[in-house]
């Protein structure tokens, strides 16, 4: 099942790359292929991340970064995340948010994940040109968020197992639509970790479904430090960067991405090569894989700090492992920052524009 679902996004990515290699597509076709690759990359990342997160929840090891936050911010992020899937199916999404604040004690990223999973689920089981509604409101001391669709709905048996792990839909109704069946399980786990509740309703087969999340309102409203600041493309403060990774495709693609910001970039395939290149190249930034052969990334960071330039270099770890203990170990080894593979473009932009703010 997992192999099947991973091949689904890999196939259009593969096909798009073959088209780009074989001919000279016009600008419009290139743009369509780029959009296709980006959509499928997001889908692939979501599959992998959801699978990892549900494993962490079942083992009790998921970590929340809780603060007083505005719930509407999480909803807006979720809508942005789910929009490409909804647009592809030409579905109509109606979003209704109250004017009043909905402050909660929560993890913005995780709550956004909950609502994007609910929107993705609604889109998956709703027909082409279908309708999806998302609204939020305050009920007493709770904030309630509802995601409603006019899609396949549930039988009573299907509704009873809606949040089961690896449940792929209501087979009794022919409702099975693929996926690895972790999205709703993950949503329930995250909501419950926030002390909230999530429930599913359906009038019956073919009559749509309704998922409702209830969270306690926080006593103190969040302060939005960026509310009145216009967002603009930041100026890049880094001029020379060294990429250290033993995987050639990873190193080259990351170097090309960094160069697209106007940064001069060189590549080293191991720690020894990186140390030899530093005196002449004099990089301001080193992005290094932790799992290097021989001398690993932790040892490399330690050795760089011993060089004359080492105290002034921004060292950022780059790893496919994203757990908090891996991050903490990297920072203790001498790294200034930590990025999970594949690098989020916003995180990379922030790194290049604000090198002094890494932690």
Structure write-up:
The protein contains eleven helices and twelve strands. It is an alpha/beta fold and 359 residues long. It folds into three domains: 57 residues, Helix Hairpins, CATH 1.10.287; 150 residues, 2-Layer Sandwich (Heat Shock Protein 90), CATH 3.30.565.10; 118 residues, Response regulator (Rossmann fold, 3-Layer(aba) Sandwich), CATH 3.40.50. The protein is globular. The chain starts with a helix and ends in a 6-residue tail after the last helix. About 4% of the residues have low confidence.
Please name the defining characteristics of this protein.
single chain, 359 residues, alpha/beta, Helix Hairpins, Heat Shock Protein 90, Rossmann fold, 3 domains, five-stranded mixed sheet, five-stranded parallel sheet, 43% helix, 19% strand, globular
CATH architecture of the largest domain: 2-Layer Sandwich
The number of distinct β-strands equals 12
CATH class of the largest domain: Alpha Beta
Rg, rounded, reads 23 Å
> How many domains comprise the coordinates?
3
DSSP helical segment count: 11
CATH superfamily of the largest domain: Histidine kinase-like ATPase, C-terminal domain
């Amino acid at each position: 099942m997992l192999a099947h679902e991973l091949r689904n996004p890999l196939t259009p990515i593969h096909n798009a790359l073959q088209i780009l290699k074989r001919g000279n597509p016009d600008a419009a076709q290139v743009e369509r292929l780029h959009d296709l690759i980006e959509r499928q990359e997001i889908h692939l990342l979501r599959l992998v991340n959801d699978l990892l997160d549900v494993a962490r929840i079942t083992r009790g090891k998921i970590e929340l970064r809780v603060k007083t936050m505005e719930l509407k911010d999480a909803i807006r992020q979720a809508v942005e995340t789910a929009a490409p899937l909804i647009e592809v199916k030409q579905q109509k999404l109606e979003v209704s948010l109250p004017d009043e604040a909905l402050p909660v004690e929560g993890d913005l990223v995780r709550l956004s994940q909950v609502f994007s999973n609910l929107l993705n689920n609604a889109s998956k089981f709703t027909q082409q040109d279908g309708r999806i509604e998302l609204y939020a409101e305050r009920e007493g001391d709770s904030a309630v968020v509802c995601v409603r669709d006019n899609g396949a709905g549930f039988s009573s048996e299907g509704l009873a197992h809606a949040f089961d792990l690896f449940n792929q839909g209501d087979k009794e109704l022919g409702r099975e639509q693929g996926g690895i069946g972790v999205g709703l399980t993950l949503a329930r786990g995250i909501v419950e970790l926030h002390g909230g509740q999530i429930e599913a309703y359906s009038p019956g087969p073919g009559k749509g479904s309704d998922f409702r999340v209830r969270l306690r309102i926080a006593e103190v409203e969040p302060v939005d430090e960026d509310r009145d600041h216009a967002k603009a493309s930041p100026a890049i403060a880094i001029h020379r960067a060294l990429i250290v990774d033993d995987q050639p495709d990873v190193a080259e693609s990351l170097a090309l991405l960094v160069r697209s910001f106007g940064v001069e970039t060189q590549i080293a395939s191991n720690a020894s090569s990186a140390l030899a290149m530093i005196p002449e190249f004099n990089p301001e930034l080193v992005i290094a894989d932790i799992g290097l052969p021989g001398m690993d990334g932790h040892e490399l960071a330690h050795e760089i700090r011993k060089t004359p330039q080492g105290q002034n270099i921004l060292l950022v770890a780059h790893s496919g492992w994203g757990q908090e203990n891996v991050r903490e170990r990297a920072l203790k080894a001498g790294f200034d920052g930590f990025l999970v593979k594949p690098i989020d473009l916003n995180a990379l932009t922030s790194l290049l524009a604000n090198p002094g703010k890494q932690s």
